[in-house]
Amino acid sequence: MMYYIEQFVRNSIIGADFDLSDKEYLLTILDDPQSFLENDGNKTVYDLMISEGEDSDETVESLSSKNSFQAMILKFLANFKTHGMSAEEIKKEYDSKYKQDIHDYDSELGDQADQIFDSEDEGILKMMADSMIPQYTRVLGLSEEMFCNISPEETKIKDEYFLNSKVKDIVNFVDDNGNKLIDVSVIVASTDDTGAIPFAFVDNDLLGADVTVKYVDENGKEIAQSEVKSGNIGDKYTTEKKDIKGYTFKEVKGSESGEFTDKSQTVTYVYTKNPIKAADVKAEYVDENGKEIAQSEVKSGNIGDKYTTEKKDIKGYTFKEVRGSESGEFTDKSQTVTYVYTKNPIKAADVKAEYVDENGKEIAQSEVKSGNIGDKYTTEKKDIKGYTFKKVKGSITGTLSDKAQTVTYIYAKNDDSENQTDPSEPAKPDTPDNSGDTDNPVNNNDSNNADKTTDSNSTIKNVVNNVVEGAQTLLPKTAADKLTLTGVLIAVVVSLAGIIILNKRK
Fold first, then answer.
1. Residues 260 and 295 in one domain
2. Element (H, E) at 464
3. Where is the MucBP domain (predicted)?
């Protein structure tokens, strides 16, 4: 007898009523269940599907894939018939989840599926749904809503497990000690000449729901491949934490070990990321010229940590702008955040420009330069009539500060040649005109001589005074200058003496 075993609705339907635990009912399907178990009990379900000596291209993978596609067809048609999905929604899910797999499995089957689900043709969907769904609900005794909940993905996983199971583990009701293994176990077999729909229906209590093991960081992000544990209800399972590079195990959420049940379970291993020293973040505080005006600050941390910087209230300055990210994350690269400020204006002390002679006497109007601290100033020498610029004391140009500054321009007084007699040439007295005086020539001559002497003395006195006044103006500054001036004075005195003697002789 050839046994046809199909599982396309097996583990996806809840509430199916196929209680074949009654051996009398089994006998209506199998002529001799005991003989069946003795002869075929150690075979896998997959082995029973292949006739002895028959070559077949079918594998567990291909069979489970085919059953998964059948489950997909029933799901889409049932949902379309009950208005659960539109033709557009069916096409979208078919294209994204199943189309490629069907074509990889069987291109001809893929083309047929495309005509039904990829065309968005509601007429084809309606015809197929009206034809197939009532037939399956009648034969299996299931409602349309149940077919809507079929999971093609779950069908494939559970079918592979089922096909690799031994027959005795599925249909045997008790173990060697008489303990009941399962409440409902079904293998429905039919010959190919019955015309019935061949299927196998395994009770949902046989296979447990999966246990999923996840490995995540503290933010729930997966940091290692998850694992799925499968088994029968009541079977033991165990999970293990992993050594994950760059992370340290923190805690586990869920039961690390336990038993499979009819409900899915998740075990989550949580890890913390190991700290890695990051490059520093420097916060600078500068004026508009880039000059530091407050102490810089350095932020340190690990890669991925958050950082934040703050602007400061700096006396005498107003915040203008920030360059760089005020807050962010530390990385393996150095970062700089620059806070730029403008300097507040502060009234500076004045700079006074004075114009004086060599005795410190003001000879021109002083000038006052005003401004803010840090501003530049400049002063100028003046052309002053009767004086020649000699030197300057102080900084001609500079920067205004909080301290008063004085710049002194010193001038030497020029000589007045119109009011002075050149001491190197003695003054010549006027020659009297005696041609008109004939009565007292001698007396007249004595009188004239006396006048001449008086005039000469006056001239000499004027010359000496001028020389002395000039000498005082040009006072010597060094010993050498003194010697030179002394020589000049001696020469002048000698010249004057010569003039006096000459005048007396005359």
1. no
2. helix 441-473
3. 210-272, 281-342, 351-411
The enclosing H or E element of 92 equals helix 87-93
Question: Is 60 exceeded by the pLDDT of residue 367?
Answer: yes
* CA angle, residues 263, 266, 270, in degrees to nearest 5: 170
451 with 429: CB under 8 angstroms?
A: no
- What burial class does residue 448 get, using C-beta atoms within 10 Å of its C-beta: 0-12 exposed, 13-18 middle, 19+ buried? middle
Each residue's pLDDT tens digit, 191-236: 333 333 333 333 344 557 889 999 999 999 999 999 998 877 788 9
**Are 27 and 160 in the same domain?**
yes
Q: Comparing 380 with 418, which gets the higher pLDDT?
A: 380
Question: CB–CB of 188/200 below 8 Å?
Answer: yes
What is the rounded CA–CA span in Å between residue 93 and residue 73?
12
Q: What CATH number does residue 257 fall under?
A: 3.10.20.320
- Separation in Å, CA 295 to CA 99, 164, 291, 345, 505: 66, 74, 11, 22, 94
- Residue 115: partners with Cβ closer than 8 Å, 6 or more residues away: 121, 124
CB-CB contact of 237 with 211 (8 Å): yes
Q: Is residue 11 part of a domain?
A: no
What pLDDT, on the 0 to 100 scale, is given for residue 402? Answer: 92
201 assigned to some structural domain:
no
**130 and 35 share one domain:** yes
Residue 475 lies in a domain: yes
Pairing of strands 335-343, 281-287: parallel
Asked if residues 112 and 118 have their Cβ atoms less than 8 Å apart, the reply is no
Domain endpoint, select from 413, 444, 466: 413
User: What are the structure tokens assigned to 294, written together?
Assistant: 């407050």
Task: State pTM to two decimals.
Answer: 0.34
- In sequence order, the β-bridge partners of residue 76 are none
Give a yes or no: residue 182 inside a domain. no
The CA-to-CA distance between both ends of the chain, in Å, stands at: 182
- Alpha carbons 40 and 48: distance in angstroms, whole number: 8
Same structural domain, 292 and 256: no
Among 48-62, 178-192, 198-212, which is the least confidently predicted range? 178-192
Are 246 and 301 within 8 A, CB to CB?
no
Rounded CA-CA distance 405/392 in Å is: 13
Domain that holds residue 226: 211-273
Are both 27 and 54 inside the same structural domain?
yes
The count of structural domains within the chain is: 5
